[in-house]
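hi!! sorry for the late reply, been swamped w classes. u asked for the two structures so here they r. pasted raw, havent cleaned anything up. first the sequence of the first protein and right below it the C-alpha cells
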Amino acid sequence: MLKSISLYNARLLLFTFCWAVSQTVSAACNKESLPYDAERKPKSDINQAISTLGKRQLVLLTFGANWCKDCRVFDKALCADPLKSLVKNKAEVVKVDIGQWDHNQDIVKQFGNPTEKGIPAIVIIDKHQNILTAARGGKLAKARSMSQADIEAYLSKLLNNAEQSLQVATADTKKPQ
C-alpha cells in the first residue's frame, strides 16, 4: 500500500511539474496577455535564464512596453513558428519592460542603451552577460510594417551573428598565451 501511494505521489509530482513548466512557456506567448510584465525582476530573470542555458549559449533580451504596438507585433512574431522554434533552440528569452521609459533603465544602460532610438530592441548576451550582438538604432521600431518573414530573417541573422561572436570569443580564450 505504501509503495503504491509513493508511486502515486511521484506521478502527481511529475505531472504537476510538467504542467507548471508548460504553463510558464505558454504564458510567455499567451495571446490573451500583454508581453511585458512590469512586476518582473529582469536581473533575476537574466540570472535564471543563464542558469538554465545548458547547450544553448545565448540569452535574448527583448526591451519593450505594452503600450508599444511594434513591441506587441514583434512579440507575436517571436511566439509564432518557425521563429519560436528557432529561438527556443538557440536562446533563452527574457523580456524587459521599460514602461514609459521609466522602468528598468539600469538594465537598459547595462546593456548599452539599445532603446535609445526606439523599441522593441534586442540584445543577445552570453552566460557572462557580455553583449554579443544587438538590434539598435530602432531597427525593429517599425515591426508592424514588417512581414513575419522579414522579422524571422532579421532575428535569424542576429542569432547567427551572436553565435559567431561567441565562437570567436571561445576560440580566443582557448589560445595559449
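now the second protein. again sequence first, C-alpha cells right under
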Amino acid sequence: MKTKKIISLVGAFLLACSACPLTVSAKGEIVINQNVTVDGLIYSPCYSNATTTEIISYDLVDVENTTIESVTIPTEINELPVSIVWGENPFRECQYLTEILVEDDNADYDSIDGVLFSENATQLISYPCAKNDSEYVIPESVIWVGSYAFSNCTKLESVTVLDSLRLVYDYGFYQCENLKTIIGSLPISAGRAFSTCKNLQSIAIKSGSDENAIHNISLKNFLYLEEFKIEDNATVGNIVINNCPLLTKLTTFDNEKTSNANDSNSELIIVDCSNLKEISTGNTRKTIRISNCSSLEKIEIADYSTKHDDSDFIGIQAENCPALQSILFYHQATALMESPLSHFSDCGDFTVYGFADNEILAWTCEKNNIPFLTLASETSATKGDATGDGEVDITDIIVANKAILGQKTLTAEQVKALDIDGNNIVDATDSLTIMKYIVGLIENL
C-alpha cells in the first residue's frame, strides 16, 4: 500500500508538469515520452544507451509551428543539456524565421546577428530563412557549414566564403532561389551543396579536404551561369553540365585522384551550352563528351598527371560544335591510350596541337585528315613568361598575382609557365621566385 501511494503521488506531480518527459501509465508505471515541447521547439530525449531509460540530454529535432519568427535555444531542459544533431538544421522549413537566439549561459551554441552557430562559431548550423539581408559574409571562425544551413533563404543574393572554410555539407544552400553570387571558392564533397540554386551566375569550387572527394557534379538548367571553375588539386568524379546557355568558360584543374574519385569513368559531359567558348581540363579525366555547343572554339587538355596507367585520358567525343577551331594537348599520349580523338561529327575545320613526339596523336590526326601542328616542348617553354611575349618581367608578376587573388583564370599554358616549383599550383611562392629572378637575386627559374 505504501509503494502504491508513493507512485500515485509521483504520478500526480508528473502529470501536473506539461514539459516533463515522464508520465504515468494507467497501470501506475512510469514511462518515457518520445518528445518534449518547450516554447514551440520539439526535443527528443537522448538515452545513455539502448537498454536504459536514463536520459542524458535532449536533442532539438523539430519546430511545432513553422510560422514562428524568433526562437531562443535554452541551455537545459529539466536540468539536462540541450543539443542539436550534428549537421542538421531543425529550422529549415521555418519560412518566417528572422532570428535564432541562445540563452546567455549556453556554452555549447552561439548566436551572431541572429544566425545559429556551434560553440566558438566553428560550425554554421542555421541561417534564418526570413532574415532580411541580401548579402552575407560567412565568419572567418567557421570551418563547416552544416546540411541545409542556408535552406530556403530566398532573400539572399550573395554569400562570401573565406579561405578558412573547409567544407559545406550536402544541401548546404538548399532552395536559395535568388542566390546569384558565391564570392570565393566553395569547399564541397558533392554537387548537391548548391544543386537547387538555379540563379547562380558563377561557381568556383574546391575539394572540402584531402580526404573528401567531390564525387559527382550535375549542373542542369542553370540558365544564368556564366562561369564554372573547379580549383587546382580538386578530386572530382563525373561532371555533367546540361543546358547552361550563358556559360562561356569551363575550367577544371584535375589531379591524379580524379579518375578514382567515385570508382567511375570520370567523364566530363557537356550538352546544350550554346555560348560556351572555351574548355580547359586535365588528362586525368578519362573521357570528354560534348554536344550542341555551337559557340565552342577551343579545348585545352592539360597535363596534371605524373603517372601513366589505365586511369589516363582516353579521348574526346564531340558533335554539333561547328565553331570549333583548336584542340590543344599539353600532355604525352601513352601506349595504353585509346584514340585521343574518338569521334567528331559536325564540328567544322579544327586544328589539333600537340608536342612533336606525341606519335599517337599525330598518327590519329593523319588517319582522320585532321591538321596537326606542334607545340613548343615543355623543356623549351619559357618559365615565368605568362604573357607569351618572350620576356619575363613585371607584367608576368601581375598576371600571377591576379590569379592568386582569384581575379583571373589562367590558361593551362600560363599555369605551366608560372608554376615554378612544379606542384601544379600557381601561388605566392611562384610569384616571389619570379620576382627574385627579375631583380637578379637568382640566375635561373
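hope this helps!! also noticed smth abt the second:
DSSP finds five helices and 32 strands in the chain.
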